[in-house]
Amino acid sequence: MGAGHTRFGALEDGPRALLRGAVDGAFASVDKGVERGALREAFLATLGFGGWQIGNSSAVLLEEAAGVGVPTTRVENACASGGYALRAGVRAVERGDAELVLVAGVEKMTDVTNARRRYWLGVSGDTEWERLAGLTFAGVYGLIASDYLHRHPRGADAMAEVASKNHENGTRNPNAHFQKRISREEVLRAPRVADPLGLYDCCPVSDGAAALLLVPADRARQYTDTPVYVDGLGAGSDRLAVQERPDLTTFEATRRAGAQAFHDAGVDRERIDFLEVHDCFTIAELLALEDLGFAEPGGAVDLTLSGATRASGRLPVNPDGGLKSKGHPIGASGVSQVYEVFLQLRGAAGARQVPAAEVALAHNVGGAGATAAVSIFSRG
Amino acid sequence: MGAGHTRFGALEDGPRALLRGAVDGAFASVDKGVERGALREAFLATLGFGGWQIGNSSAVLLEEAAGVGVPTTRVENACASGGYALRAGVRAVERGDAELVLVAGVEKMTDVTNARRRYWLGVSGDTEWERLAGLTFAGVYGLIASDYLHRHPRGADAMAEVASKNHENGTRNPNAHFQKRISREEVLRAPRVADPLGLYDCCPVSDGAAALLLVPADRARQYTDTPVYVDGLGAGSDRLAVQERPDLTTFEATRRAGAQAFHDAGVDRERIDFLEVHDCFTIAELLALEDLGFAEPGGAVDLTLSGATRASGRLPVNPDGGLKSKGHPIGASGVSQVYEVFLQLRGAAGARQVPAAEVALAHNVGGAGATAAVSIFSRG
């Protein structure tokens, strides 16, 4: 019933200041007000990128949220940390342990040396079979995209459309790292990073934080007249190393997480008004549409090229710009998706408002599909 | 309703093999049997010491538990990771999300270079005010012990008794890292590490893993005739840097976690038959007894010197040898405490069985008291 967000980008602030900004924003967003002293538990999503506080970082959250002694837990599932922290927070509320729970995510990625950054960018992939062999995340997603394009050659245009669309959306999000339109042609002509992925197929390395406040559903109207409800949670895992999976072009973790979330929420896909999906690389948005059941295998190409996933389309995807344009501060990304859901379902998304948005889905992936969390929300 | 444990010590196995050993043991411990395919969720406690898999390590649990696609989450609160992973696991069961949940902890600490080990041993303390200033954990606990001994000079003997008692207990635990008796005199005469802490005041650096299987309370007898119940959970946090706390000789995080656990379980301290407390340094066992309410400030000295906390005493503390003698593979330690509770409450602890043990408490601390988790258990 509250949510806060810093700018994403190459920022001057360190992780503590970023967290403070997001948490302050979350408390300030509660229409009818809430005492900070009412906070009963807090969850922190962070990879601890660059080693700012590798162990016990959740206690920092306590300090920056000005709580006193409340339990804090770090939840880390790489880029899916935020989605899993939300899951942990919802469970804490639903067990009745806490009336007011904070879920925050943060990452500070831009102030480390290039050598350290390469190390930290790789640590969420499989260490034994991928990282130590020199395979980077762009490399892994490049393999996935190669296989996908072999089967669905028009996927290259769809990937370019994903980048172009998400950059267009980002221009309407003042918190987005990039505020710059790019055309499909620019995407296709960009320097190669890991063929077939070019520069504009890859999300940036960003700093940023986001925070959410959760209360039991039956108490929400005590704090706001426009509550947003968590209707369903789902999560799933898969082998870390992609070489151990039978098919590169589908994330079993997403499939399981999505099925569980739809079952938990008791809604059909037709009810979803917009999606926040994990587009760390453009190919990942296509996979997400298919693995979440919004398209058949290969069907995300036509769905995307039809314009349906644009802000003006029938199923907007990543109206905030997505990881691609908004930025991807690892631990913050999954929490940031829910911040966007919160704004949209309250009708408070300004220039990027999805008309009549009532039900939304957020999809967060860890690594190259080793972990995934899916959540479904509705407005009150 | 199931629990498994590897040896703790300087072992040849890597983290995956250690996890597999503990998880296999947990499944094998279920009297009436259970299908691995029934597993619905899994939580991994690990610091990722040495960097074996810094991000997304929870997916490894899936591979080593032979599950298919089940959600896995890494919970990291430094040395308290295990206690918090249990908390997360219990909540998953109690929300009704899963009938069978796995909670496992692992650390592989002995195969890293000395330079890397020093780095990794420091990462759970405050980075800004302690680690970067050169303060190690032994240094922080040395400061705490200095202050404590200034107020309670006989504490030095009590600390020596903690070491001697826990080493005695460790000789009856085949999984313990150390299997060696030491006298109080040896403890007091040992080389200094961080005055007033000597070599035998400090727990070792160990490899090891432990695992637990949880089911809803009303289903437990379907799997075993001797179930162990989780009756209460508590957790609390504190400022990371000890310089920011008003009193060095008490852990506010433990006080809050203990109060919450006793409230949640609805039992009095008199009902507790034995304790597993976080004795990373001998001073920490004294603090735990006081912060958990089993002694007044300074009262842990007499309680300990009276012999009450020995295996044969009225309130045995760390019958398995504690971190001090059993070893302290960071992520595994909090889970290992619950393994001991499981054995004891089923009457299966062999040579170290606490007579007529019915109710027990486990206490797990992260860093120098930045985070703490307390859980209370009873036998069926």
Could you characterize the architecture of this molecule?
The structure is a homodimer of 380-residue chains. Chain A is of the alpha/beta class. Chain A folds into two domains: 2-112 and 208-222, Thiolase/Chalcone synthase (Peroxisomal Thiolase, Chain A, domain 1, 3-Layer(aba) Sandwich), CATH 3.40.47.10; 133-203 and 226-379, Peroxisomal Thiolase, Chain A, domain 1 (3-Layer(aba) Sandwich), CATH 3.40.47.10. Chain A is 35% helix and 17% strand. Chain A has helices spanning 15-28, 58-64, 81-94, 114-122, 137-151, 155-170, 184-189, 252-265, 282-291, 299-305, 322-326, 330-345, and strands spanning 2-5, 41-45, 72-76, 101-107, 192-194, 197-198, 208-214, 228-237, 274-276, 359-366, 371-379. In chain A, strand 10 and strand 11 (371-379) form a beta hairpin. The first copy, chain A, is globular, with a radius of gyration of 19 Å. The first copy, chain A, starts with a strand and ends with a strand. Strand 3 of chain A pairs antiparallel with strand 3 (72-76) of chain B.
